[in-house]
């Protein structure tokens, strides 16, 4: 295992970009960063805090979560809101996101902040689908603390972490993007399930946030086959590199209420490639309020 960079509050949302390398966010202190293959880090978006999930968009930019789901072009310019929050209905924002093979976006909403305490009574969130025409609809409900999302290699199953319940669930996926009933997949033996990715052999690699946890690797029947221990609190994972056979693991400071900057990026080589994540192809229009 190799430590590639350090000095962040809480790293989240790792996504691989062939042109820029590993892109990640700092939830606590803000900003989006790119770690290139030479080990150099550059900041590509400033200021914005609370980004728990990201996806590439074919238009040349990133779809990011946080207080809303929004598009930010790499060359700069106005932010385009794709899906806004609705605090009156208990939707305070969004955490992890992913895309399916068609480029549609799945985004989990938050009934409470995962980092910033606001004194609200926690509520369950929903899972939203943003379709190619920019319309959005709820496709699953009752997620206590939404986190990692990832598809099986054939795209027929969606895996979804619920950190509050310490479990990963799965859904059968219909052609139109709708989801079947939520089914229990695994309960984490250590820590709480956070970000996740799927490899081409069907294994699910789940960041398990917590002391002395790491990344749990499960076969598609839910059997734990390996636990990769990481220094610090592992929050998310991402396959990358030229063959998608490098597993990147990102961590955060365990004392999130402090000014600690213990978050770091680690990597290991694997014997299997990750399932490729299709760039988003949803229409870029301002969300209707």
What ranges have pLDDT less than 50 throughout 5 or more consecutive residues?
A: none
Alpha carbon gap, first and last residue? 46 Å
What structural class is derived from the secondary structure elements? mainly beta
Mean pLDDT: 93
Strand order within the widest beta sheet: 1-24-23-22
Structure in a nutshell:
It contains no helices and 24 strands. By secondary structure, it is mainly β.
Which terms summarize this structure?
Neuraminidase; 289 residues; mainly beta; 4-stranded antiparallel sheet
Write the layout of secondary structure elements.
Layout: E1 2-8, E2 11-17, E3 21-26, E4 32-35, E5 41-45, E6 54-57, E7 61-64, E8 68-73, E9 80-84, E10 93-99, E11 105-110, E12 125-130, E13 136-143, E14 146-151, E15 157-162, E16 167-172, E17 183-187, E18 192-198, E19 204-209, E20 214-218, E21 224-229, E22 233-240, E23 246-252, E24 263-269
Antiparallel strand pairs: 1-24, 2-3, 3-4, 4-5, 6-7, 7-8, 8-9, 10-11, 11-12, 12-13, 14-15, 15-16, 16-17, 18-19, 19-20, 20-21, 22-23, 23-24
Please characterize this protein's 3D structure:
The protein has 289 residues and is mainly beta. The protein has a single domain (2-269), classed as TolB, C-terminal domain (Neuraminidase). It is built from no helices and 24 strands. It has strands at 2-8, 11-17, 21-26, 32-35, 41-45, 54-57, 61-64, 68-73, 80-84, 93-99, 105-110, 125-130, 136-143, 146-151, 157-162, 167-172, 183-187, 192-198, 204-209, 214-218, 224-229, 233-240, 246-252, 263-269. The strands form 6 sheets. Strands 1-24-23-22 form a 4-stranded antiparallel beta sheet, with no helix packed on it. The chain has a 4-stranded antiparallel beta sheet with strand order 2-3-4-5, with no helix packed on it. A 4-stranded antiparallel beta sheet has the order 6-7-8-9, with no helix packed on it. A hairpin with a 5-residue loop joins strand 22 (233-240) and strand 23 (246-252). The N and C termini lie far apart (46 Å).
